[in-house]
Amino acid sequence: MTIQIGKKYSVSPPRYGYEELSKFNKFRGGDKKVDINTSWKGGTLIVTPINNEEVEKLNRFKENGPLVEVSPYDEFQSVDFDSCHAGQIADTEYSGWTEEEELDGTMDEVIEGIDSEGDDYLFENGWNCYENLVKFIGPWDVEEVQ
Length: 146
Fold this sequence. Notes:
By secondary structure, the protein is an alpha+beta fold. The chain is built from five helices and six strands; from the N terminus they run βββααβαααββ.
């Protein structure tokens, strides 16, 4: 397959090669933060190369994979989310909580909510997602979108 400028391509990393870091905050008597790193079993983005540099990059990532973890959103100007499935939260970090909130169960409520509902809990309870980073690891499966 020849990759061409302006054509759309379905792009997927190898199994478990799709990671997403979502950073949330909420102002509730201080700046509370929760960072959730999710590892997805699979996922797909739609990439449309807009110049020769992006065509070469897409070919290189398809053949050998990037040498390091990369964010398709940083590497290409035209990227659209298509799908992801079977996510598993790999790591969650909490910051900005007071000792009182840790002791009175406020923090435990958030931890239990994330454990049971994932980041939906945060969205439903007034948290703001202020940053979302997507990384692909390994060679990419690239298919032309018809």
